[in-house]
Amino acid sequence: KAGVTQTPRYLIKTRGQQVTLSCSPISGHRSVSWYQQTPGQGLQFLFEYFSETQRNKGNFPGRFSGRQFSNSRSEMNVSTLELGDSALYLCASGDPGSGELFFGEGSRLTVL
Amino acid sequence: DQQVKQNSPSLSVQEGRISILNCDYTNSMFDYFLWYKKYPAEGPTFLISISSIKDKNEDGRFTVFLNKSAKHLSLHIVPSQPGDSAVYFCSRSYGQNFVFGPGTRLSVLP
Questions:
Q1: Nearest CB partner across the interface for A56, out of B41, B97, B100
Q2: What is the chain B residue with the closest CA to A4?
Q3: CB-closest option in A41, A45, A105 to B98
Q4: pLDDT at B13
Q5: How many other CB atoms sit within 10 Å of the CB of residue B26?
Q6: Is the pLDDT of residue B1 over 60?
Q7: Would the pLDDT of A60 be above 90?
Q8: Is the pLDDT of residue A1 over 70?
Q9: How far is CA A107 from the centre of its chain?
């Protein structure tokens, strides 16, 4: 069974630009959540989607948005990038049976 | 509001000894607590969980203890191995809502 796939793995942007990150969950998983990891801040929850609907949202500004498609693939978008948005963005798909989250390897965003 | 706290940012332990990683929480509503391990440049991987109705769960070298009255849980690794060196995240799950702690970096010294 293929794991969670995130693209791109690495990207560099400049302030003011926007970025779109993609996540393909494990086949059969309908829940996809996104996290931001920065040094010392742990994993901060961005949002969670289930069957194309956003069910939960973390405490991030409106510049951070996401969506989920009918095949459960998800994208997140960050507009008007700021230096502080530099982070590792992790996507996870949820196994409803076990309650576990399975993470992708992340997309490392650097904002210059 | 830090719902899940891991007050030790780092921990160093000698190989073969016990590693104890601690986690405190404020919200008593949860289905599971889960521990995830993260190596550099990789996504976190699930390690072990404990449900709200248990006070202990064991899986090989890993044991998690839950003290609901103290709102505290701990992960014990015995014996510790150099390959256990990683960042460990404690996570509370309720429904599909997961909250992670800031992580503890464990270094197991040979």
A1: B97
A2: B43
A3: A45
A4: 98
A5: 12
A6: no
A7: yes
A8: no
A9: 8
